[in-house]
Every structure is written in structure tokens, then in C-alpha cells.
Design brief:
The protein is 54% helix and 4% strand. It is mostly helical.
């Protein structure tokens, strides 16, 4: 076990802050992020368009997201969260905190939209975001620039870009989990072998 700062014990195999930054620098780039970000709209479209209401409205519990809610949430994020925050970071640094984001703001904004309309809107806005991201021409030094998250404090452009990608993947996994749990009881004894049915028992969004 390696000693941590001030003589403390660190976790074996856990990189320190400097090492973490070095690893991230080689791992996160606009081109790598686009590989995932460009595919999410088509993935969700192929999965959800045309599904019957029981699949689209499935939830894990009170206040959690259905597959339809996930698409609406992603569209909302696309319009007011990721790229707008990146622009604030690049233009103002840490002097201007990001505009707070209301996680459930989509419920009022998109309440009357069908899943097809939500998918179309998400695809269009994501395409616009990727064009804008490309136009920024971000390089290593740009990704190391920092801004102020209203809850998390100092964050870098690189961290924001990585979080954008992982946010997509988190909600893709959520859609799979929520739909799988519709058949939680129907699978009978196979439930023992289907780990997704026990995942996130708390049902948080």
C-alpha cells in the first residue's frame, strides 16, 4: 500500500490527482467524445420509436424516469446544459458560475410531445451541438481551462466533456434497466441470473 498525503494510506491502484489528470489528458478529447455523442440519438431512436406505451412509460418507482422521460431529459440537457456551460467556461473561466440546471425541467417544457417528436428534437439539437463543438477547435490547453459549477465548484472543460459522454451512457443503461424490470416477475426463476433486474434497487433517476 502506498502512503498518501500527510502519511495517510492510499488505496492500492488508485491514482492521485496529478496522475488522474495525466490519464484524463490522454483519454478525453473532442474526437473521442464525438464517437459516443454522435451515436446516442440513433441508438435511442432505433430502440424506442414505435414502442407501445407500456414500454415507454415504464418506471422504477415514484419520481423516476421512464424511457420517454429519458429522451425528454436528454433534449433538455442538449438545449440548456452541456454546450451552453462549455461556452460559459471558455468565455468567462471561473468568474461566472454555470447557470443552474433543473433536472426535471423537461416535465413542463415537453409534456405534450410524443416520443417521436422528442427523438427528432434530440437528434437535431445533438447534431447542432456537435457542429458547434467542432467549430470551437478545442486543444489540450483549452480542455484544461476551468469554470465554476454551481454545486461542484471548480471543473475543467475536459471533465465537462467526459461527463457529457458518461451522462449519455448512464441514461442508455437506465433505459435498458427500466424496460428489463417490466419483466422482473415474469422471468420466474431466471431472475437469479439476470443481474439487471437487481440493479439500482432504489430506483433513483
Amino acid at each position: 500500500m502506498s502512503a498518501g498525503p500527510a502519511g495517510g494510506r492510499g488505496t492500492v491502484g488508485s491514482p492521485g490527482p496529478a496522475e488522474s489528470a495525466t490519464v484524463s489528458a490522454g483519454l478525453v478529447s473532442p474526437s473521442a467524445a464525438r464517437e459516443i455523442l454522435a451515436r446516442t440519438p440513433a441508438l435511442l431512436d432505433g430502440w424506442l420509436r414505435g414502442l407501445s406505451e407500456p414500454w415507454l412509460a415504464a418506471r422504477e418507482g415514484e419520481g423516476t424516469y421512464s424511457p420517454r422521460d429519458v429522451v425528454a431529459h436528454l433534449l433538455d440537457n442538449e438545449e440548456v446544459d452541456w454546450l451552453p456551460r462549455l461556452r460559459i467556461l471558455l468565455e468567462h473561466g471561473e468568474a461566472r458560475p454555470f447557470t443552474p440546471f433543473e433536472r426535471d425541467g423537461f416535465r413542463g417544457r415537453f409534456a405534450d410531445r410524443t416520443v417521436g417528436e422528442l427523438l427528432d428534437g434530440f437528434a437535431a439539437r445533438r447534431a447542432e451541438s456537435l457542429v458547434a463543438l467542432e467549430s470551437l477547435g478545442l486543444r489540450g490547453a483549452d480542455l484544461d481551462r476551468t469554470g465554476t459549477h454551481p454545486a461542484l465548484g471548480r471543473v475543467s472543460a475536459r471533465q465537462l466533456l467526459a461527463a457529457w459522454v458518461v451522462h449519455d451512457l448512464t441514461h442508455v443503461a437506465q433505459v435498458a434497466r427500466v424496460m428489463a424490470k417490466r419483466y422482473r416477475e415474469a422471468v420466474g426463476p431466471w431472475r437469479e441470473y439476470l443481474g439487471v433486474l437487481a440493479d439500482r434497487e432504489g430506483g433513483r433517476t
